[in-house]
Amino acid sequence: MIYYYLDSSAIVKRYIREQGSQFIADIITKPDCHFSTVSISKTEVISALSKRYREKELSDDDYGAVLDRVLLDFDDEYSIIPASQELVSLSARLAQVYPLKGYDCIQLSAAISLKTRLKDFNVRTVLISSDSQVCNAAADEGFEVIDPNKITKEGKQKPPVQPQMQIPVTRPVFDYSDREAILRPLSIGWVVQGPNVKKFEELFAEFTGVKHAVATNSCTAALHLGLLSLGIAPGDEVIVPSFTFIATANAVEYCGARPIFCDVDLGTFNIDIEKIEEVCEHNAQNGNLKAIMPVSLFGLSANMPAICEIAGRYGFRVLEDAACALGSGISHPSASDFGLKHSGTWDDAAAFSFHPRKAMTTGEGGMFTTNSDELADRVRSLRDHGASKSDLQRHIEKGGSLLPEYNVLGFNYRMTDIQGSLGTTQVQKADEIIRNRMARANRYNELLKGIEWLKIPYVPQNYVHAYQSYVCLVVSNKLTVDGKIDWDEVNRLNLLRNRLMAKLEDRGVSTRQGTHAVHTLGYYRDKYRIKNHDYPNSFVADRLSITLPLYPQMTEDEQKYVAQQLLKAQTR
């Protein structure tokens, strides 16, 4: 089934007339196509059908059937052609909520809502509009889009202007040493978790300044095992920020526990300390709240000293989601020589990610870190089906021919030795990689500091930002009124951001939204009956954040090009 939105502009009407038998008659003959209102006369449609009939593209029977349908369904002007009672009913219900009077009169949010509801009927939604801004915004929301302004008289799409540069949102750092590292396990023949994983763990623990590092096949796995090792069980509750990647909350659900969402600070995008206090006061009495899982988002450490202090007062455990935080930290007296205390080394434990978008990568992979011997031993066993000893231990110790004991229910969350070998060369370059990311972030700060509508990343005093991502916020002086968020302004800025990202893509600049507000995603929204505005800052960050390209090899010319195209895209 196809549902068409057509605006009533002269350009669209001309486009439909020009397409004639190639467009109108072809669609009208299919009973599974639908239209929103468009001003095109019955005479024009019949003329197009007749042309198709004369060219023998329609049989006598088909032509007669189509004519009957046109005569029955058309008033003086073109209107909706329903194909099923379900869709008629749906349109009627929506019409009570939204002013569906043609795309030029309808808010995009209403169209998106209609598109979402039509998914249940397996509907393709196509927009034909002469408003390029609407087209860009709709395309960003997943609509199929036809812009008549970009169609030649011959009905062919105009060739796009080739951008001067193609700039990805990120790019891993690989060199000859990484290639050799990957080949090494292949030549030896040990490719499962083994000596290279062990070496990687040792190097990573040394880099971050933590006692134990336990490699896993993903950061999500490390979070899951971390929660289990801390005793999180069905019925328990864990505080998590609402603005984060979905894996943070998913790890809690895997334990049968419930994530208790907490809003974030729009300045840092990290969990709001005052909101944690409110959540603790509200939920601690029921006895189910057992842990806090802060996220050090985009390469900026969460306020771990304050979080650990709150956890200590309430007796909660702390597992830091440090997926993005390699190289970040806080200057703190607990660090040696009052230096940098690295993210992931606070309180109970943490988890890091080695996904390709992170500073260093093993393709996929994660790392659990802790200073606790007990937690480290527990996670080592749980990642390997609950085995009492690893394959490597069996290989190097006497009596390895016998299988180990399995006294707990574990998982297959092991890292391969191929990944571990790559990790050893990557972590040895980590200092240089992070320094280069920081240098390029500082260059962005200079290039973008005069753009009033773009809020660049904020770094609190005594914090070191490692810039896993360079995430900005599209803002205006109308975003808040008397301390309250103006949601109409948020919607307007959201459309502006989406159009901006689409235009940048056309110019060869890849961008992403920062991450998502987890409470707005279907699983959590429906299961816990959460509304978008229940966590307002997280929702604003979801709708208005934009990640600019950043990678260690990025040239000055590439960054200048991004800044130039950002300004051009916003002003047109």
Explain briefly what this protein structure is.
Residues 25-40, 73-110 and 117-123 have low confidence and may be disordered.
Overview of the molecule:
This protein has helices spanning 10-19, 24-28, 42-54, 60-73, 85-97, 108-118, 132-140, 176-188, 195-208, 219-229, 246-254, 273-283, 304-314, 373-382, 391-396, 417-428, 430-448, 487-506, 522-528, 536-544, 556-571, and strands at 2-6, 33-35, 124-128, 144-146, 212-216, 237-241, 258-262, 289-292, 317-321, 329-331, 340-342, 349-353, 366-370, 454-455, 463-464, 470-474, 480-481, 484-485, 545-548. The chain has 572 residues and is α/β, with parallel strands linked by helices. The strands form five sheets. It has a seven-stranded mixed β-sheet with strand order 5-13-12-9-8-6-7, with helices on both faces. A four-stranded parallel β-sheet has the order 2-1-3-4, covered by helices on one side. The chain has a three-stranded antiparallel β-sheet with strand order 11-10-15, with no helix packed on it. The longest helix is centred in the C-terminal third of the chain and has 20 residues, at 487-506.
List its salient traits.
42% helix; four-stranded parallel sheet; globular; 572 residues; seven-stranded mixed sheet; alpha/beta; single chain; 21 helices
Number of helices: 21
* Residue-averaged pLDDT: 81
- Helicity range of the residues? 40-55%
Spans of at least 5 consecutive residues whose pLDDT stays below 50 are 25-40, 73-110, 117-123
Structural class: alpha/beta
**Biggest sheet descriptor:** 7 strands, mixed
N-end to C-end Cα span: 35 Å
Radius of gyration: 28 Å
